[in-house]
Amino acid sequence: MNDAERQSLIDSGKMFKVLDDGFVRLVDTMGGDSSIVQAARVSYGAGTKKSSEDRDLIRYLLRHQHTTPFEMCEIKLHVRVPMDCWRQWIRHRTANVNEYSTRYSLAIDSTQRTKPNQWRIQASNNKQGSDGIVDAANGALLSEREARLHAACRAEYTDRIAMGIAREQARKDLPLSTYTEAYWKIDLNNLLHFLALRMEANAQYEIREYAKTIGEKIVSQWVPMAWEAFCEYRMNAVTFSKTEQQLLSLIYAGNNTAVLARLRAINWIKGEGSETKPILEAREFLNKLADLKIDLPLA
Ligand SMILES: Cc1cc2nc3c(=O)[nH]c(=O)nc-3n(C[C@H](O)[C@H](O)[C@H](O)COP(=O)(O)OP(=O)(O)OC[C@H]3O[C@@H](n4cnc5c(N)ncnc54)[C@H](O)[C@@H]3O)c2cc1C
Hints:
It is built from twelve helices and nine strands. The chain has three domains: 3-105 and 178-235, 2-Layer Sandwich (Gyrase A, domain 2); 116-173; 242-291, no CATH class. It has helices at 3-12, 33-44, 51-63, 83-89, 136-162, 167-170, 188-198, 205-222, 224-235, 242-252, 256-265, 280-291; strands at residues 15-18, 22-30, 74-82, 96-99, 120-122, 130-133, 179-187, 269-270, 277-278. The chain is flat and about 75 Å long. By secondary structure, it is an alpha+beta fold. The structure holds flavin-adenine dinucleotide. Flavin-adenine dinucleotide binds at residues 91-94, 128, 190, 193, 197, 202-203.
């Protein structure tokens, strides 16, 4: 996005829709790819170079976690997010935030609703995750009950307000699915950190949708070189620990017996035959191998 396109997106007030009634809107930006390069060249004492060299420099900086040049760029977003999702979002302490006040104003009359085919089942192997979708009949029942619950909570809130109860207290039983709005300003280094954590498959679906929207719809246009380097070296990169590298060497040598012996020696797998159980770290290693199309039979 050049300066004119960026200004046009800001002026248009375009809202990128997220979930059923949430959004992300670009309010302002400061700097761009050229600011990262400019700041980095100050530290290296060199003048402005060609665009291809700018790209190489940004890729070098990101690859080597030379992060401060990325802090020269800032972005301000206006977001509308369900409160439970916002609770995860607000843990990112390096942003500046101004949130809609439900002490001062009436709570936003909108709650995030779940469609019958969106109720996720608790994952059995990840206490923080979900795995699969509930069957259609139960999904319909849950959505219907959700609608009734939201309506009852809102009716109680509205009644309390009508009876003169202070907004700061009347709000206390509103559901966590109630939407809130905020202005959120953050530098690019910390934004990329946020995106890396919240676009990742382990992050909860709802915040992942916001992170993907910010990354793919806004950051990719605002700082295309930094975004490209981020996708290459951070988002889609895989790291291997010292132990994993030793195991990879054994796998590469085709010595599966030695791999299994090593996995047992370090207690990454326990039991024998059909009882063989890999611990969490081993399962994570196997998942990385699977992504690389490397099959490692454990029995
Ligand atoms: C999948 C997932 C599951 C999570 N589960 C839980 C959970 O169960 N319970 C829970 O409480 N949280 C949970 N979190 C939140 C997590 O622990 C972090 O609080 C959150 O991701 C913010 O990360 P951060 O501190 O790196 O980011 P930011 O707050 O944005 O900080 C960015 C970086 O700045 C530096 N920094 C910022 N503030 C300080 C400081 N005061 N001191 C030192 N360095 C600082 C750190 O290097 C930090 O990485 C989860 C997060 C994810 C992504």
